Amino acid sequence: MHENIYLPNLCKIEKITDETPDVKTFKLAFLDESVRNNFTYKPGQFVELSVLGEGEAPFCLASSPTRRGFIECSIKKMGKATQAIHDLLEEGDVVGIRGPYGNGFSVEEMKGNDLLFIAGGIGLAPLRSLLNTTLDNRTDFGKITIVNGARTPKDLVYKYEYETWQKAKNTSLHLTVDCADESWSCMVGVVPKALKEIKPCCDNAVAIICGPPIMIKFTLPVLIEMGFRPEDIVTTLERKMQCGFGKCGHCMVGGIYVCKDGPVFNYAQIEKFKEEF
Amino acid sequence: MKIINKSEFLGLMEKWISSPGLIAPVNVAQTFRSADKEKNLIVFKKIETKDEVLADYLNTVKPVKDFFLPPSTVFDYERKDEGYNFNLSEVDGKETIIFGLRPCDAKSITLLDKVFSEDSEYKDSNYAKKREKTVLVGLACTSPDIACFCTSMGISPFSIAGLDALIINFKDSYVINTVTDKGKNLLGSLGKEAGREIDEEIKTLEESVKLKIKKTCNTSKNLESSFESEEYWTKVSNSCLSCGVCTFLCPSCYCFDLSDESAKRIRCWNGCVFLRFALMSSGENPRATKKLRYRHRVFHKFKYFREKFGENLCVGCGRCIRHCPVKIDIAEVVNNA
Could B272 and A275 be called an inter-chain contact, meaning their C-beta atoms sit closer than 8 Å? Predict the structure, then answer.
């Protein structure tokens, strides 16, 4: 990467996919061939993506490191930088990328376990990175259960991959929405409620959960009640992050820099943090 | 330690002005159109003529960190056919001598080093280059004021930590204590051996200056127990204006912003006491109240940084106390926590 830690490497936008009315997925390739070939990352890590002159913001990598030559970020229109990303960028444009940053998921430690993926809305993005990594190494993992929720059917992301996931060996996908429409044939209700109906087994299983804070807050007690140990519940924390390497101070919680020491933590670690999440 | 005649030393400093370049404390009060012309407004500045240099002052208003971590660093870029070209001419890494920083400021540089130049994974190349190319010649402090508490922070007004050489004002001479190779190369050939008698006198002088420092900060205190005390942190932060002067004048505060604005990438200071510092684009602000922000500042300085690096992120320079518009006293806040 760049010798100067504050400066990005340049990436060309190869493809833009409309996921939902306010989420787009950007497929990016580094302009510099050696960077493109040597860029490696772990699921759960993130990059700082910049529209030069407009702004920079952190996004988790939604692509899987098992699929080389490109990276993907799914971006929801929220603030100044994401507004610029949505409104100004077209395929072929150039953006800046710094990273990868953060600890990422401990994929090695998950090997041999059953995996329960729980996602809400755009929270599926980092889980998709891990999910596709595990599917590309399917024999290393046990049963895979995916519980994916969204506000409405329109807000579901990566719909084009559901079929692949459903067909994968020993893998089940459960979809739920808060508000259904006439076309909807899957579950209705918030994620914790769906989880209670699905009743996933906690033996030798790791739960990986990502979504809006309110979903995480109400899902954690359900998992504990089902018998999951706090060490086996993994989530990613959200904080304002700017530099990505534990210096600028924005994401600090207690003595922890979420950007560098996180963003992936297990529930046992989070319980020890004094400040509220 | 060596001893040198003052005029001889000042003559040498005059040479540094043209080569390699000298940065030293200057009183800039006269250049302001304010009513405060009588006041001392002492800052580090690139020296043009020898008459500007001050040898008698308490401390600069702004710390020496400005030189290594400028209030804002701008990375210009221009569009090219495919992508952008970054213009990095800003990092020239010219050799410079900084004269006249107090031992407290020198110590603060060693704390910043831990974050910016000693982090092998994410090293700030600008910072590291400047550190490498700069010789720090400190000036021992002989008249601390009531806000100073360096002696509580493991240093003294004569400390050499972070310095390449320390100069001590001694009667009509300067005593020179060269610390590093850089210091020895610059000053090693100067003056004559001070001898044991002067060494002893310097020690006595140091002890007498230390005794002038009355303020203490009890850093052995376990802050943990105060964390949950809503009452305490509300009380101590109640008058805080969230103006951020404590963070900007602090020689060891280093939080910053990184932003993109019209063809520029800007790295500029920010501070944890500002309302929007932790605000996320979702609208959620994890430190929306003054008590949470002020508590975080104190805990970062006296707990979190110490857990990570073994030292407090404070050197007792007293600037945050001296310049706080509502007289919040961080040493007292720690003592009473």
Answer: no
